[in-house]
Amino acid sequence: MVLHLGPLGRSVTDDEFFQFCQLNRELHIERTSEGEIVVMPPSGGESGRRELRIGAALHQWAEADGTGVPFGSSTGFVLPNGAERSPDAAWVKRERWDALTPEERERFPPLCPDFVVEIRSRTDRIPVLQEKMREYIANGADLGWLIDPAKRRVYIYRPGAAVVRLDNPESVSGDPRLAGFSLDLRRIFT
After folding, report:
1. I want to staple 90 with a disulfide (CB 3.0 to 4.6 A). Which of 11, 82, 113, 142 is the partner?
2. Which domain, by its residues, includes 103?
């Protein structure tokens, strides 16, 4: 559901939006760069299972690699364009995370992740997710994966490059940006 607030949406501060989200923790809430509030229900079973598998794989790699910090789907980020987004999984380079103040880390971090993953659920429209992926790249992400389990596809987004579509891949690699990170998609597509 999208709440169109008109000029009022742009006047809500980041702190006010954070408080609004804290009061409605049972909902997944984002804000577009135009100030529209996007309210999504909690994930269904299959979507939640897939998110956890991807998040666990990213976390395991990040712990061993040490060059960045992984995040799950409940983390909101304030992008440079003013949108507040919560990708299904994300990773931020260590030096960028360490540059934030303790207060910035406690709220929605004011940065675009370096790597983002969005997983299409049964009710998601692919054009909406594709636009969100373009927004991440335009705001500083180095790599993004849009995973469509229903069609067994992965769309790979990189700055300055055409989107790459992989049909029925067994895995997808984060190289060279996330050196050594590979996701086994057979566990995500099943």
Report:
1. 113
2. 44-189
